[in-house]
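user: Here is a favour to ask of a fellow structure person. I have my own habits and do not want them to colour yours. Could you put it straight underneath, so I can go through it closely?

assistant:
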Amino acid sequence: MRVAVTGATGRLGSAMITALEDAPFTGPAGPIAWTRSDFDLDHPEGIGGTIDRDRPEVVVHTAAWTDVDACAREPELALRRNGDAIGVLAASCAHRGVDLVVVSTNEVFSGDRSDGRGYGPDDETGPPNPYGASKLAGEQMAVDAYGHAGRNGRLGIVRTAWLFGPPGSDFPRKIMDAAERAITNDAPLRVVDDEWGNPTYAADAAEAIVELLAEDAHHGVHHLVGVPPASRADWARDILGRTGIETRVEGVPASTWSRASTPPRWGVLEPTPMPSGVPMRDWRAAMADYAPALQRERTRR
């Protein structure tokens, strides 16, 4: 199976390439890594030529504009990058009979739920911010493209949340930096405790997508997230405990800080069953694997 991955140098994209390299169904040539030069969210019109050049059977679309505050400041640009660009990609794939897996977000849901349950794939959407609105628009444009396709081709939508892992400044790295500043200032580390989600290791999400592809089960809507749900403050305490940074974490409401975007307060997704019957692992187990790399980075500073 020839699988192309957009945004192949990003957090999930690079994890997808690694996971696909180990997957026997990709063959000796391995996955096709598409970077911005192959598919540019600001200039998506060239994707048809890229597909014809590389002839993938499946495209996994991980590229996105994920700066949620910037999306809130420039909602029209967010819609073009996270919505319209997917529409162009989906139309090009569907026309050629190429399967597409679109990676989306928990922020397509309002976060107003109060029954303690995670959002399922069939629950009503209602994005609370321009980032979520742009990602939902991308989902809908992809559905429309495959609904009008004249050839065979299947669409999968994968929603995930709170991705962490290399490269770049993820939440664990930000918390470690903030904790060291708090220690320097002899102050507690203040972390939001009324925003809930699913910390999800990018490598685990990538492996789950590979499992869907391997079992020919990638069509439809899937929620691929770590378990159990956690607040930002819960996650911060786990990070600091594993990396040996000793400082007090003070839980505070999200209203403590003013920001451009409004994240869902209850952004928890209910994981969908995997073909193997084995769920994605506890995010704390993933943090245990990830913590040594974070500690090594810290000692090299």
Remarks:
- The domain at 169-196+229-267+282-300 is CATH 3.90.25.10 (UDP-galactose 4-epimerase; domain 1).
